[in-house]
């Protein structure tokens, strides 16, 4: 029996010794890989360091420090999500691994999860109460939470500049947080800063082409730039990635409704049904007050219809709303200027044409400006047609007839018994009638008068 027992022990040792030696060799080899990884880490060759730490983990998968080292390398490569997984594995293997908890907190912080980060830093302080790094990172987490709170209030109040400010501050602590970047991009789009918003959304889509929020913001920028068909494509793609994305669904519905209503208005306008077109453009304007560029076009379209319906003051008001929404909208300035001309508000027309010509110095715009300036000049002198009470196309005979009638009406002898004030007024009017007839009864003078030229400057005395 004793011999058999000795034989069993010998056999067991013979079996275990190779295993023990193999495990020991694996640990030595893993440690060697770790040291090589450390050397590359010091040289800032993080990709090679990552490879050697991975080899160390493969040789010794239950060593918490190896996961911690690889996590540190991934953090230097800004691969925070992967680093977070390694940190969590490290603290699962060793809950007292202080560096593991600290790095996990930093990963959470960089990804914008301030609550989870705070829990990690509090655990570090339980293990090492005097850790100044953990104390500072805890304050950073609290700062992020405060910026999130302020941004939420700002968004509800539609104070999008405040939200952008808060997100910029939060991103200083959480540079890899897609949520903060998306919120900033959305607010930039709502502020009309489309290139900046598109840049942020595109950066995220390069890293994650399936990010529904980034697809939504990309579509929002196109939608607000009046590229509705392309915008709908992005909204549909966002809904494909996230069927419950409420903002994308609402934007997609608005985009389709806006396009349909605008096209319907255009159609009936071309058919000459101006009343229907006016109503359709009005309905389209109620769909989405945030779509500045499209609404500017709708106001201008409605102004065009208004001018056709002789609603000139309403047309001017619509053009004014259009240029308030889009200061670069030349067509709205031109439409308003024409309405000003039609209502004889020449100073306002000149102002609009000057703005247009300064923006786009074309021959057509120069001609329009000169014409408005001429009409303004003409409006500031006596209107001899009004003085005689005749139309601008009156014939020579009609002018003579009107002159005789007005001359008799205002002749001084007719008012000899009136007060001195009335006599002076009637005498003034009598002279104006004479001036008017002197000019309008002379074909050459009348032609020069109609063209806006100064008759006195040309040495053509108008007589009395």
UniProtKB/TrEMBL annotation:
Species lineage: Eukaryota, Metazoa, Chordata, Craniata, Vertebrata
Protein name (record): DnaJ (Hsp40) homolog, subfamily C, member 7
Residues of the signal peptide: none
PANTHER family: DNAJ HOMOLOG SUBFAMILY C MEMBER 7, DNAJ PROTEIN P58IPK HOMOLOG
J domain segment(s): 383-453
Gene3D superfamilies registered for this protein in UniProt: DnaJ domain, Tetratricopeptide repeat domain
Keywords per UniProt: Chaperone, Repeat, TPR repeat
Domain of life from the UniProt record: Eukaryota
Organism: Takifugu rubripes
InterPro entries: DnaJ_domain, DnaJ_domain_CS, J_dom_sf, TPR-like_helical_dom_sf, TPR_rpt
Spans of repeat TPR: 30-63, 98-131, 212-245, 258-291, 296-329, 330-363
Alphabetized Pfam families for the sequence: DnaJ, TPR_16, TPR_8
Membrane spanning stretches: none
Start-end of Basic and acidic residues biased regions: 410-429
Region described as Disordered: spans on this chain: 408-429, 445-464
SMART domains, per database record: DnaJ (SM00271), TPR (SM00028)
Residue ranges with Acidic residues bias: 453-464
CDD domains xref list: DnaJ
